[in-house]
Design goal:
alpha/beta; seven-stranded mixed sheet; four-stranded antiparallel sheet; 355 residues; globular; 15% strand
Length: 355
């Protein structure tokens, strides 16, 4: 069997998703999911037929939502498929490179390693902003530049001046991909308005975060019609299952927007409330500013906090293995009740000398 497996796949480490890590608890605050669920009625009477390659109703509704033409949108199975699809389509093993700026979303690296594409890592500055000078210096053979904005796991927005600088400086044959998975929590900072000016710009979006639909795996790639049409040649024949498109269409209806945006508002209020209550806890060294539905916190001893919270039923995401995130945990913002219970657990853990 070993002779059948390419060496780079044999040594590959898969993406460690929240589910794959296998931690269990009553309160799941480790995957940046929305804590709010809502029931959607479906009427599926034609499951014996293949779905549309790109469901027309869903394209129209997302087009209206973004005020972007349908020809500039590609529906994918979550934004993860788009990340993978771009590498499969545009990169050639041992010739092309991709670039990203850690600490950031790990899936960029995992996908590149699957296809044996060379990786160029340009670490962010201490402020978690891009090191634009280093990026430009190493961009020559880079085919794809991935930028997560707001960034995961740090939660910060990338300076728009840096994005504009890079779009002007990178070669025209380098695609700049801005992953806006969390942009609805800071919607005024989207880069979509730049699409008309820069033909090598690509935006990734998802319904998994602010829309509370992580379970249906529905994402969108927004780019020039030329790029979209090229990607259609590589995308699977039936990428959007019928139940997925129907649920997504329902969520993108005008009647549901008020519910979704109200949920976003509640999450942001819960985030600010949670931060205000724990900011003076003695074992909290730093709470990083967040423009997302999660916060990154540096503790004096993150291991003891992580293990204690797990015993209390709270599953959070350990980020301390990343170079500049030592003793950091990423915590998804839950409901007000979950925030109150988490605050109490953190307070009790300190007063009882556990953390």
């Amino acid at each position: 069997m070993k002779k059948l497996i390419p060496i780079h796949i044999e040594t590959l480490l898969p993406y460690q998703s929240a589910k794959r890590i296998g931690l269990f608890g009553q309160f799941l605050l480790n995957a940046n999911e929305s804590p709010y669920n809502y029931n959607i009625q479906m009427n599926l009477d034609n499951l014996n037929r293949y779905p549309d390659f790109q469901p027309k109703k869903l394209l129209k509704k997302y087009s209206n939502y973004l005020q972007i033409q349908k020809k500039n949108i590609l529906i994918t199975r979550g934004s993860d498929e788009a990340i993978d699809l771009l590498i499969r389509t545009f990169c050639v093993s041992k010739i092309d490179q991709i670039m990203f700026c850690p600490p950031t979303y790990d899936m960029y690296e995992v996908c590149a390693k699957i296809y044996n594409i060379e990786i160029i890592k340009i670490p962010t500055l201490k402020s978690f902003q891009l090191n634009t000078i280093q990026i430009v210096q190493h961009i020559k053979y880079v085919k794809l530049l991935y930028i997560c904005n707001p960034n995961n796991p740090t939660g910060n927005l990338i300076d728009i001046s840096d994005l504009l600088y890079l779009l002007k400086k990178v070669p025209s044959n380098c695609l700049v991909i801005i992953d806006e998975a969390y942009i609805e929590f800071s919607s005024k900072n989207s880069s979509i308005f730049l699409l008309k000016k820069y033909s090598n710009l690509i935006i990734l979006r998802t319904l998994s975060k602010a829309f509370g639909l992580a379970g249906i795996r529905c994402g969108f790639l927004i780019a020039s019609s030329i790029i979209v049409n090229i990607l259609k040649k590589v995308l699977a024949p039936y990428p959007v299952p019928l139940p997925v498109s129907q649920i997504a269409e329902n969520a993108l209806s005008k009647k549901n927007f008020s519910l979704i945006f109200n949920n976003i508002k509640k999450i942001l209020e819960n985030r600010d409330f949670f931060i205000s209550k724990i900011s003076n806890f003695p074992y909290v060294k730093k709470i990083y500013p967040s423009n997302t539905n999660f916060i990154l916190i540096k503790f004096k001893n993150s291991i003891s906090v992580f293990q204690y919270l797990l015993k209390c039923g709270f599953v959070v995401r350990d980020q301390s293995h990343k170079k500049i995130l030592k003793n950091c945990l990423r915590i998804t913002i839950g409901t007000k009740k979950e925030c109150l219970l988490l605050i109490k657990s953190l307070f009790d853990g300190y007063t009882n000398g556990i953390i």
